[in-house]
Amino acid sequence: AQKVTQAQTEISVVEKEDVTLDCVYETRDTTYYLFWYKQPPSGELVFLIRRNSFDEQNEISGRYSWNFQKSTSSFNFTITASQVVDSAVYFCALSEARRGDDKIIFGKGTRLHILP
Amino acid sequence: GAGVSQSPSNKVTEKGKDVELRCDPISGHTALYWYRQSLGQGLEFLIYFQGNSAPDKSGLPSDRFSAERTGGSVSTLTIQRTQQEDSAVYLCASSLGQGTQYFGPGTRLTVL
């Protein structure tokens, strides 16, 4: 069965610190997609990244980086030199390609507080 | 057009009344989703439309909830005889394929 676990419910760090948000997933499929979404206090979910299961290359986008490791079924998200504007709830999600649809299973989210 | 839009942004209603929430997906997106997010909670899947296929209603919490999608575009989520536990933010998303969903700003529903 599909499952996404974000064990960290809430994290607080001081501005400029690095922080890593953990995501562990379960799937029986060999082809799947992994996502991260950001939900700032305004409430709207913002798409951050999509990775397919065949691409384990880590990705960096500015201060954001993602570490995809199939061996541990993890897709962790790191924010370097955090800023107050990074404060938000971050959701990890999984979609199985064999389903033939676009249904995504979301984790319960990690609430990140960046303290000034 | 631009992104996914939803209306109203806020809705306050009395217990027992019916409400309709509207979602305008991104033009050309074939898939449309409704989710519910209670205060401080994660996303609860409600219903999914894909093209002309029968919708996946597996997430609807009760028969008071229904949704339709007219012309493969705009969708309306209807909640009949609202209860206080229906209070939440209702989020709509659309996608073109390969899983990436783009979300609207949500409708905050408060049932008094």
Radius of gyration of chain B: 13 Å
How many strands in all of chain A? 12
Main interface: chain pair and counts? A-B, 21 and 24 residues
- Could you tell me the strand content of chain B as a percent range? over 45%
* pLDDT < 50 runs, ≥5 residues of chain A: none
- CA(first)-CA(last) distance of chain A: 41 Å
The biggest beta sheet of chain A, please?
Answer: 6 strands, mixed
User: Oligomeric form of this entry?
Assistant: heterodimer
Shape of chain A: globular
Number of helices of chain A: 0
Uncertain stretches of 5 or more adjacent residues of chain B? none
**Approximate helicity band of chain B:** under 10%
The helix content of chain A is: under 10%
Number of strands of chain B: 10
Determine the structural class of chain B based on helices, strands and strand pairing: mainly beta
The overall pLDDT average of chain B reads 92
* Protein structure class of chain A: mainly beta
Describe how the helices and strands are arranged.
The complex is a heterodimer of chains A (116) and B (112).
Chain A: E1 3-5, E2 10-14, E3 19-21, E4 24-26, E5 32-39, E6 46-52, E7 59-61, E8 64-69, E9 74-79, E10 88-96, E11 105-106, E12 110-115
Parallel strand pairs in A: 2-12
Antiparallel strand pairs in A: 1-4, 3-9, 5-6, 5-10, 7-8, 8-9, 10-11, 10-12
Chain B: E1 5-7, E2 10-13, E3 19-24, E4 31-37, E5 44-50, E6 65-69, E7 75-79, E8 88-95, E9 102-103, E10 107-111
Parallel strand pairs in B: 2-10
Antiparallel strand pairs in B: 1-3, 3-7, 4-5, 4-8, 6-7, 8-9, 8-10
Please characterize this protein's 3D structure.
Chain A has 116 residues and is mostly beta strands. The radius of gyration of chain A is 14 Å and the shape is globular. In chain A, β8 (64-69) and β9 (74-79) form a beta hairpin. Chain A is 0% helix and 53% strand. Chain A has strands at residues 3-5, 10-14, 19-21, 24-26, 32-39, 46-52, 59-61, 64-69, 74-79, 88-96, 105-106, 110-115. In chain A, the strands form three sheets. In chain A, strands 2, 5, 6, 10, 11 and 12 form a six-stranded mixed β-sheet that branches. The mean pLDDT of chain B is 92. Chain B has 112 residues and is an all-beta fold. The radius of gyration of chain B is 13 Å and the shape is globular. In chain B, strands 2, 4, 5, 8, 9 and 10 form a six-stranded mixed β-sheet that branches. Chain B has a four-stranded antiparallel β-sheet with strand order 1-3-7-6, with no helix packed on it. The chains are: A mainly beta (116), B mainly beta (112). The interface between A and B is medium-sized, with 21 and 24 residues.
